[in-house]
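Sequence design from tokenized structure. All designs in this work follow the same two-part layout: the structure record, then the generated sequence. An example of the structure record is given first.
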């Protein structure tokens, strides 16, 4: 039988594909030289290179320690294993012939450093929480869901959609094991349950930001706003509240175990610094502005009493959260001398700018508002109630100060304000003048 002719060797010359190039180069569809921490193209154009955010916090940490998982042994590219054929018996949550093991290592090397605030929490996310996944696979699935979201935030849009789908897959895989374990909380499983609840909160933030962006785009293209769209927007906004209340539901049931276990640094609170004259003035000015919001529903005779109480209580909680976050924010030394002059005019935009530039030592304090929300208010939020949307839009201000630039929060604060703007309509736009002024939607 005649032999099969060999394909011609002539044609397009092979060149190295920049499969692991930085995000800006991928968006521009150009070859990346993959130099760290800033590639040549980004250095030449003076743009922010995504490799900079991927630099490990400690370059002295040996990669072999971080990338040896189970019985897998793989070649390393950028400190992360390439696509693997088997994940190892000790890693049942890692599927074969996928990027799961790669993303597991990505979490340990890169994602963990972005979540470790303060930096003292880095070992917790890099080693302690991943070690729980061996005995509790639902923790591993939760970890992978967050790793996929983190990588999606660094990838071009066409790639990020696939990565977000992988993230959702792992959350769905984790839920049965998590729900079964939570039926009987013990000292041994309290830390894994709390760890997974942390991942769910991050997933809820990222997922709500992504989903609300799609809903807002669709809403703005319609001549009128259907009730279904309003409910969908409200439900998306309320999902974050429910996820945060869920994690604290677990915490209160096993606080004594978590407080003495490996996750104790996560729940450690910090003493507020001494309030400066400027901070006290900022708290006073913003609290006066927030207090006026209650007139919207209190002066409306058709507002049900139960709804009015839920709205007023949510506003009280919001005022407390604003004051707490301001008290826990330390302003850079170089800005202290000029802050008094800037704020003498009670300029809300300047107050927001100053506090956004400060450092919030106790980041979880911004979620105090969510923890204290009543089921009635969350229900109003899910319905897209106009007054609940006003309160949510003002919460977006303090959320923006604490989480602006966080990859897992993405543009959620902007989307909250945009949701309120769409639902309120032009005739009630003045109700959210402050959020619209300080947060670009």
């Amino acid at each position: 039988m005649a032999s099969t002719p060999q394909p011609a060797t002539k044609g397009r010359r092979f060149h190295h594909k920049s499969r692991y190039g930085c995000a800006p180069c991928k968006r521009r569809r150009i070859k990346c030289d993959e130099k760290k921490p800033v590639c040549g193209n980004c250095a030449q154009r003076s743009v922010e290179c995504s490799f900079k955010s991927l630099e490990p916090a400690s370059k002295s940490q040996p990669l072999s320690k971080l990338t040896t998982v189970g019985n897998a042994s793989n070649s390393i590219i950028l400190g992360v294993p390439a696509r693997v054929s088997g994940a190892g018996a000790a890693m049942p949550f890692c599927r074969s012939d996928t990027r799961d093991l790669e993303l597991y290592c990505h979490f340990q090397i890169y994602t963990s450093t972005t979540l470790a605030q303060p930096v003292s929490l880095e070992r917790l996310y890099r080693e302690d929480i991943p070690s729980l996944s061996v005995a509790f696979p639902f923790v591993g699935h939760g970890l992978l869901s967050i790793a996929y979201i983190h990588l999606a935030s660094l990838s071009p849009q066409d790639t990020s959609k696939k990565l977000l789908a992988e993230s959702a897959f792992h959350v769905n895989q984790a839920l049965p094991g998590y729900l079964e374990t939570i039926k009987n909380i013990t000292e041994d499983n309290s830390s894994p349950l709390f760890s997974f609840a942390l991942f769910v909160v991050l997933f809820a933030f990222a997922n709500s930001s992504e989903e609300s962006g799609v809903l807002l785009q669709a809403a703005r293209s319609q001549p009128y706003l259907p009730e279904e769209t309003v409910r969908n927007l409200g439900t998306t906004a309320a999902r974050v509240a429910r996820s945060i209340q869920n994690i604290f539901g677990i915490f209160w049931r096993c606080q004594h175990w978590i407080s003495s276990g490996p996750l104790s640094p996560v729940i450690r609170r910090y003493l507020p610094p001494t309030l400066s004259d400027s901070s006290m003035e900022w708290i006073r000015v913003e609290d006066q502005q927030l207090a006026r919001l209650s007139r919207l529903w209190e002066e409306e005779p058709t507002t049900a009493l139960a709804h009015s109480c839920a709205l007023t209580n949510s506003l009280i909680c919001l005022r407390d959260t604003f004051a707490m976050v301001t008290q826990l924010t330390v302003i850079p030394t170089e800005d202290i001398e000029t802050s008094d002059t800037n704020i003498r005019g009670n300029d809300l935009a300047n107050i927001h700018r100053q506090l956004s530039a400060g450092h919030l030592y106790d980041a979880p304090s911004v979620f105090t508002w969510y923890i204290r929300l009543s089921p009635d208010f969350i229900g109003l939020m899910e319905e897209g109630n106009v007054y609940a949307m006003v309160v949510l839009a003002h919460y977006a201000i303090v959320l923006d100060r604490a989480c602006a630039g966080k990859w897992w929060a993405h543009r959620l604060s902007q989307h909250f304000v945009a949701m309120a703007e769409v639902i309120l309509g032009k005739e009630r736009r003045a109700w959210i003048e402050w959020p619209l002024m300080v947060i670009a939607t």
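The mean pLDDT is 81. We note this feature because it recurs in several other targets discussed in the main text.
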